[in-house]
């Protein structure tokens, strides 16, 4: 707490797009309440505190720190460690900090391939001498430094211990506000903080439970790409053969995507007690697949199911769209053919 | 040699840093604008189904996800060789105009505007949106918040989500506009037009009636004579959603006008080892370093650039505001069009002219009977092609281009015959302006640091102002709500010891 009795608040982004911050701004006028209730001590987006200020704070100085963005380079990791030390409660805020998010699809390829694609092979890049960004560069006037780009994208929890997680890409504003209200009440002694380590600002059940589209227990003989069919409005997309991550994804968003005719892609992460969202999705899919006839032998049945599953384009990049940093796939083999992900796990860091 | 670091200035794909080196005389020898982060979308999107790109690439930027969503969706039209119906184009453009209104509003009132409305020398604690509200009144502050809210609401209803929309599909849009929504949007657009007109009046009153500000806008410290780039329609008028790319030289003469698909012939990107971001330049002119003028391939793609390349605005009120801007800034007509304005701070004014255009265009679209066409989701299939072997003419290929608020945005995809991506190239809005921003920073530093004398008071804000007018994606990161960019300047001597420390705002 500050001298004025207000809890100290911090927010930081590591490797992220800024959408988490915009979602916080989208609580609109309630933002003024945040300003009233908290003493903001670090928030590069909104207030002018510097790294130096944070380094000077005593350990545990920040009461609540929302950390968004994944760990992609040396600077991200340094800030994660610094803010862990300076914060009483550190929250992994949003999908990147929680489980890597879309940028963690990078873990299906390699650092070398990424640098090559961006700086050497891009059709608009003119780079005859093959220059790549370097951690240290001597220029005529002195030396310039940039952080080192990591081979693997990590979640915040893979680098430092995290107290709570708010999922979503980005977390929906009404959920952000609900969490802030709880924290304020707890700090005033009017409520208890949720159990340490829990996922907050989200539902406890799957997206399907809050989705208004009607399920008719229909099965499918194949899956379709979104441009191959026009879905019947009001009906479950998965039962129409359009891949929707709803059954394997935590709710809390309000099932926004399926309601506009686009399948869920899983941004709120896996359900409680599920470690691997993709594996869970495979199980869910099996239940809508129509295969086999009475008396069919197990081998033929398996083949039939496999054939239906094969109609799904890019299963790795779809089932682990947001959770690749935590996936049991771990890392693609670093063999220079990034972009050919399969469901086999590979070697390499 | 002394080294001054400004760290962090945050955000583009991450954070930003400025390193300024002083020579033995204490003058600025050079300034480096360093972007220390890379995320690598060009590589990790490979292997993904092409149709997922509108939902993948919006994560490049959470501030302008709508722009990436739209460029990606248009790249899919081209990849699938499907021409969207006119209703589809109108629904997309309507969505895009709502985005422009909220984005330009945010920049003017929360990010760039405070420098003028509150004043460049006001205490940093007041130089923010709250300061703006104090200066112009709570009622107006409320209007700003309402404008953001009203348009964000429409973005969510049309695009499916408030941040990171999902509705773009090849040749279409995932849902139609209902008659009820159409009425709501029409009313919002009307309010937007009023709000834009009011904002231009406010600008005239606060900036144009203040000689000190006008002098600053016209000063050499904030002037660069470069090429300009922007999309124009068939009449050479400004268009955000579609058109051809037009480039004019520093005198305003058309240098080239090309189909966005031909961008690799016209734009090249330079790699430097000390930053993760590339520097685009005009290929036909060539890279001559961080210099302006006709011999240098450096170009600029901003609201001011879009006005500079165009022959005018497609809507009547915006056209009036456009003419007033060029007349007031002393631009003469050459061959029927205004000569370009090179005063970088006039970009703020140009942004308001564009705000008015976006609002007027939104109203036109909302009133168009075709906007409620229920058939906006076609079933399509990719054309039959030879398997992809990275040879031109084989596999699927598509380019999508829009004007992002921060510059011309190009997505370019290659895919195999199953529409699985094989290669991706992106030239992002802010990136176009990387070299001009670096030049503006150096020029501002040179005018403020002389003979070892560092003008500490206002130095940091003047340097910020030099690039804030470009509305780089990190500006929202660095100058928003209670809003001060977290700048700190450390001055090092030759032995690397800190000899002086300057901070923007330390209590």
Spans of chain A with pLDDT under 50 lasting ≥5 residues?
332-349
Mean pLDDT of chain B: 86
Percent strand of chain B equals 15-25%
Report the radius of gyration of chain B as a whole number of Å. 22 Å
What is the number of beta strands of chain B? 20
Question: Which assembly state applies to the chains in this document?
Answer: heterodimer
Spatial separation of the terminal alpha carbons of chain A: 42 Å
Structural class of chain A: alpha/beta
Report strand order across the widest sheet of chain A.
2-1-3-5-10
CATH class designation of the largest domain in chain A: Alpha Beta
Look up the CATH topology of the largest domain in chain A: Rossmann fold
Strand segment tally of chain A: 10
Tell me roughly what share of residues is in helical segments of chain A.
25-40%
> Residue share in helices of chain B?
25-40%
The CATH superfamily of the largest domain in chain A appears as NADH:ubiquinone oxidoreductase-like, 20kDa subunit
- The neighbouring-strand order within the major sheet of chain B is 3-2-1-19-20
- The helix-and-strand class of chain B reads alpha+beta
What does this protein look like?
The complex is a heterodimer of chains A (349) and B (507). With 349 residues, chain A is of the alpha/beta class. Chain A has 3 domains: 8-103 and 153-187, Rossmann fold; 106-151, no CATH class; 207-313, no CATH class. Helices cover 28% and strands 13% of the residues of chain A. Chain A is built from 12 helices and 10 strands. In chain A, a hairpin with a 2-residue loop joins strand 7 and strand 8. The model of chain A is unreliable at 332-349 (pLDDT under 50). Chain B is built from 16 helices and 20 strands. Chain B folds into 2 domains: 39-60 and 224-342 and 387-433 and 473-507, no CATH class; 83-220 and 343-379, Cytochrome-c3 Hydrogenase, chain B (Orthogonal Bundle), CATH 1.10.645.10. Chain B has helices at residues 41-44, 53-56, 65-79, 86-117, 129-136, 138-159, 179-208, 211-218, 263-266, 303-309, 316-328, 347-366, 429-432, 434-448, 459-468, 473-478, and strands spanning 2-6, 17-22, 28-34, 168-169, 172-173, 227-232, 244-248, 254-258, 267-270, 279-282, 299-300, 333-334, 337-338, 396-404, 407-415, 421-427, 449-450, 453-454, 488-492, 498-503. In chain B, strand 4 (168-169) and strand 5 form a beta hairpin. Chain B is globular and about 65 Å long. Chain B has a 5-stranded antiparallel sheet, with helices on one face. Chain B is 40% helix and 18% strand. The two termini of chain B are 30 Å apart. Chain B is an alpha+beta fold and 507 residues long. In chain B, helix 7 runs antiparallel to helix 12. Chains A and B meet through helix 1, helix 3, helix 6, strand 6 and helix 9 of A and strand 3, helix 1, helix 6, strand 9 and strand 16 of B.
């Amino acid at each position: 707490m500050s001298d004025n009795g207000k809890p100290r608040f911090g927010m930081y982004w590591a490797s992220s797009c800024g959408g988490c911050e915009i979602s916080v701004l989208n609580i609109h006028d309630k933002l003024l309440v945040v300003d009233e209730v908290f003493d903001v001590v670090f928030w590069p987006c909104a207030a002018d505190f510097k790294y130096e200020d944070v380094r000077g704070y005593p350990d545990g100085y920040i009461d609540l720190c929302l950390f968004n963005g994944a760990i992609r380079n040396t600077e991200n990791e340094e800030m994660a460690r610094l803010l862990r030390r300076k914060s009483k409660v550190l929250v992994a805020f949003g999908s990147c900090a929680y489980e890597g998010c879309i940028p963690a699809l990078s873990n299906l390829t390699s650092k070398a391939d990424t640098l090559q694609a961006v700086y050497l092979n891009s059709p608009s890049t003119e780079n005859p001498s093959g220059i790549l960004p370097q951690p240290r560069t001597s220029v005529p006037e002195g030396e310039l430094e940039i952080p080192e780009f990591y081979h693997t994208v990590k979640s915040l929890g893979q680098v430092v211990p995290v107290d709570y997680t708010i999922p979503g890409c980005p977390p929906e504003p009404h959920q952000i506000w609900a969490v802030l209200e709880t924290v304020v009440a707890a700090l005033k002694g009017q409520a208890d903080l949720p159990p340490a380590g829990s996922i907050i600002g989200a539902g406890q059940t799957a997206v399907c439970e809050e989705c208004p589209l009607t399920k008719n227990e229909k099965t499918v003989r194949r899956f379709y790409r979104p441009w191959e069919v026009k879905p019947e409005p009001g009906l479950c997309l998965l039962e129409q053969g359009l891949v929707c991550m709803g059954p394997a994804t935590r709710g809390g968003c309000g099932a926004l995507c399926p309601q506009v005719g686009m399948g869920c892609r899983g941004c709120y992460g896996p359900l409680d007690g599920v470690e691997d969202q993709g594996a869970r999705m495979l199980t869910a899919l099996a239940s809508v697949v129509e295969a086999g006839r009475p008396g069919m032998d197990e081998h033929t049945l398996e083949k039939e199911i496999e054939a239906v599953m094969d109609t799904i384009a890019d299963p790795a990049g779809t089932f682990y769209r947001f959770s690749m940093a935590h996936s049991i796939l771990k890392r693609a083999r670093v063999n220079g053919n990034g972009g050919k992900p399969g469901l086999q796990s590979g070697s390499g860091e | 040699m002394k080294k001054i670091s400004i760290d962090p200035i945050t955000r583009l794909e991450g954070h930003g840093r400025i390193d300024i080196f002083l020579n033995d005389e204490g003058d600025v020898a050079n300034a480096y604008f360093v972007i220390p982060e890379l995320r690598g979308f060009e590589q990790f999107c490979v292997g993904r189904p092409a149709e997922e790109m509108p939902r993948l690439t919006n994560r490049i930027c959470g501030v302008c996800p709508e722009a990436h969503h739209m460029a990606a969706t248009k790249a899919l039209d081209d990849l699938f060789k499907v021409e969207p119906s006119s209703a589809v184009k109108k629904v997309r453009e309507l969505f895009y105009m709502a985005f422009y209104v909220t984005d330009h509003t945010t920049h003017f009132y929360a990010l760039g505007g405070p420098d003028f409305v509150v004043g460049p020398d006001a205490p940093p604690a007041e130089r923010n949106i709250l300061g703006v509200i104090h200066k112009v009144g709570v009622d107006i502050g409320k209007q700003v918040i309402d404008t953001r809210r009203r348009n964000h609401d429409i973005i969510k209803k049309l695009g499916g989500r408030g941040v990171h929309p999902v509705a773009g599909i090849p040749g279409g849009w995932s849902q139609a506009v209902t008659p009820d929504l159409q009425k709501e949007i029409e009313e919002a657009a009307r309010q937007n037009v009023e709000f834009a007109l009011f904002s231009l009046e406010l600008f005239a009153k606060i900036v144009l009636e203040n000689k000190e500000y006008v002098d600053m806008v016209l000063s050499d410290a904030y002037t660069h004579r470069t090429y300009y780039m922007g999309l124009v329609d068939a009449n050479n008028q400004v268009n955000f959603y579609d058109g051809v790319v037009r480039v004019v030289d520093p005198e305003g003469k058309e240098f080239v006008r090309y189909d966005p698909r031909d961008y690799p012939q016209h734009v090249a990107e330079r790699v430097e080892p000390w930053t993760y971001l590339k520097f685009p330049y005009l290929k036909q002119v060539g890279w001559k370093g961080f210099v302006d003028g006709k011999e240098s391939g450096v170009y600029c793609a901003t609201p001011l650039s879009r006005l500079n390349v165009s022959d005018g605005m497609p809507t009547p009120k915006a056209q009036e505001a456009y003419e007033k801007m060029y007349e007031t800034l002393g631009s003469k007509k050459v061959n029927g069009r205004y000569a370009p304005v090179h005063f970088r701070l006039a970009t703020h004014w140009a942004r308001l002219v564009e705000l008015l255009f976006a609002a007027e265009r939104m109203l036109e679209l909302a009133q168009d009977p075709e906007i409620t066409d229920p058939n906006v989701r076609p079933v399509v299939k990719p054309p039959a092609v030879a398997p992809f072997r990275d040879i031109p003419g084989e596999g699927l290929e598509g380019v999508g281009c829009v004007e992002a608020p921060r510059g011309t945005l190009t997505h370019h995809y290659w895919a195999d015959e199953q529409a699985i991506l094989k290669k991706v190239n992106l030239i992002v809005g802010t990136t176009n302006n990387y070299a001009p921003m670096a030049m503006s920073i150096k020029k501002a530093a040179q005018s403020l640091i002389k003979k070892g004398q560092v003008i500490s008071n206002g130095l940091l804000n003047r340097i910020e102002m030099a690039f804030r007018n470009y509305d780089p994606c990190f500006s929202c990161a660095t100058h928003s709500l209670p809003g001060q960019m977290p700048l700190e300047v450390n001055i090092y001597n030759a032995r690397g010891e800190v000899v002086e420390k300057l901070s923007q705002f330390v209590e």
